[in-house]
Write a structure and sequence with these properties.
- 25% of the residues lie in helices and 39% in strands.
- The protein is an alpha+beta fold and 152 residues long.
- The protein has one domain: Pnp Oxidase, Chain A (Roll).
- Strand 1 and strand 2 form a beta hairpin.
- The protein is globular and about 40 Å long.
- The relative contact order is 0.23.
């Protein structure tokens, strides 16, 4: 489902937003700070800081549906991954390096479009939860004629 080229893009350090919904279909969203693709290409792990997961956790635990919007600020390349929750756990110490590396890359992206690093560098990223999702669909979200079309 996620090939090597798409996996490389997804893990380069991008803007990440996680969306959920409750039983009444009311949406909720929160910021994520890193994403990794499992070697099987069918699962991802999204890292959501503890300060941002409070609104999302009840929905993730009750219905297990999530949408992750991924975007690269410098050129608006974007996609959305929909998936179902496989596991939610505390991120482990060895995963902190992935979070730090990807978030630092994201800050660099923001600088390229004129947003000073200081604006977002104070955002809390740790501790975080690791939310493993089974990918059910991927959609192109980059501006242009393919926006909204399935990637996989």
């Amino acid at each position: 489902m996620i090939d090597a080229q798409l996996a490389s893009f997804l893990q380069e350090g991008l803007g990440l937003q996680v969306g959920t919904r409750d039983a009444a279909l009311r949406p909720s969203g929160g910021r994520a700070v890193a994403l990794t693709v499992d070697p099987d290409g069918r699962h991802i792990v999204v890292y959501i800081p503890e300060v941002a997961i409070g609104r999302l956790l009840p929905d993730l635990e009750s219905n297990g549906h999530a949408a992750v919007s991924i975007g690269r600020p410098m050129d608006d390349r974007a996609c959305q991954i929909k998936g179902t929750v496989v596991d939610i756990r505390q991120a482990e110490d060895h995963e902190r390096a992935v979070i730090t590396t990807q978030f630092t890359s994201y800050l660099g992206q923001l600088e390229m479009i004129g947003i000073p690093r200081a604006v977002a560098s104070c955002w809390t990223n740790w501790p975080a939860r690791a939310v493993r999702l089974k990918v059910t669909a991927i959609f192109e979200q980059s501006p242009g004629p393919s926006a909204g079309h399935p990637i996989a």
